[in-house]
Amino acid sequence: MSPSERRLQKELMSLMKEPPPGVTVDGDQASQNLTLWTVHMEGVPGTLYEGEKFVLQFKFTNKYPFDSPEVTFVGNNIPVHPHVYSNGHICLSILTDDWSPALSVQSVCLSIVSMLSSCKEKKRPSDNSFYVKTCNKNPKKTKWWYHDDSV
Amino acid sequence: MDRILGLQKIFSKEYQDSSLTDLLLSLKNLFSDKNCMNNSSKESFDLDIINRNYFEEVKQVESLPNVTVYFGKTLTELKFVIIDDDGVREHEINLKYKGVQKYVITSVNLPHSPYQDKVFNSINEILHIFRDHVNSLSNYFRELERIDQFCSVVEPLNPTFKDDYRKIFLDNRTWLHVTVTPDGTATNIHLIGQSEFWHDKLQSGLLSWDHDKDIVDNIMIIFDLPNVLSAVHEGNPSKYVSSEEDKQMCGICLCNELPDNPGVPQPLCQNTACGVFFHRSCLYEWLVACTGGRPPTFGVATGSCPTCFHPIACSEKED
Fold first, then answer.
1. B286–A101 CB contact, under 8 Å
2. What is the pTM of this model?
């Protein structure tokens, strides 16, 4: 088993055993293919996303954790949020420039939960339609201009 | 020749949809067929061993709930995996068929097994005794499970119920040794490593050992770890376990040992408040990757700590 698979296996076990509130990983699918995970996420009660359900997709390369995972929202409910494009791409610095191997699937999930939870107004990014038309399928190919840290 | 044809027939027909025992019986019938018998002493020996009653017994055991049967390298070696009365733990017992109504236990994955190498008349008898034995150890299992769950166990490397002791991490130079007796009490409690601080705590703590509490709770109280204790009681050990484990495993690959590298995780970050351990090779690989994969000048990679972002330098080889 390669180091990246070993680490993914460990992360999967701990995420299945002690998932953060509102987060569940599809363990069967992930254990069959360790490089592609589906994570279900529920909107936190008391926030704008209360009662909503989202699906996140994680793709890992064999360089993980030296290489960040590719994380997008998938499915028919993409959260309406100033940092989430309607094609599911997420503008979040830890997914690209600020990635560190000390981060994990769990910490990425928590960051996304907190990004959603701190949202004050549900709207798409201002450049949504342009970006969605022109972007690469892989969000990691995008040179992100990080909007701000407050949301 | 006949036998080869017979074998082919059995395997093509029966192997697909019959149970293992049926298959073995057909094999046995094939080999005990008069035409096939010759004077080879070895073969007749085999035939004696594969006795119909034996298979009947195995078959009977196979139908019991909570027992799984496996054959070993030869048909006379058996392994049973039984699930204990708590319904969660699996225990293995290996035995050998030594002739009609003669069975010997060859190994058990438990300590304190008083029945080893005794001869028994039937498999059922063995299973009965083994099951009683397992159930009598239920406190022992529970204590070990709780220790493994809530403490950072450094020895045995992969603790099992066969190991009746645990070496528990207290700090970088001190470990606690505990042996668990079959009835689930702690014995042979002592420190490994010189530390007056832990030593004093242990001496006074042993006097007030509370036998109504389990071993983990007592350890937590003795070493005055209230946070840990509350985490245990809230059934939320994650914080404690992960922080203690993180200290020893590499913050990058999340493992202790690397398959192709003898190095162990070390506190390589120069920020003393950070304290996260890394394999030198993992940290080096990350720092090099951050600079676009170029090998650094003089073999020392620089960058920032993956955990605390403190400026950090790391050489490829041990200094």
1. yes
2. 0.49
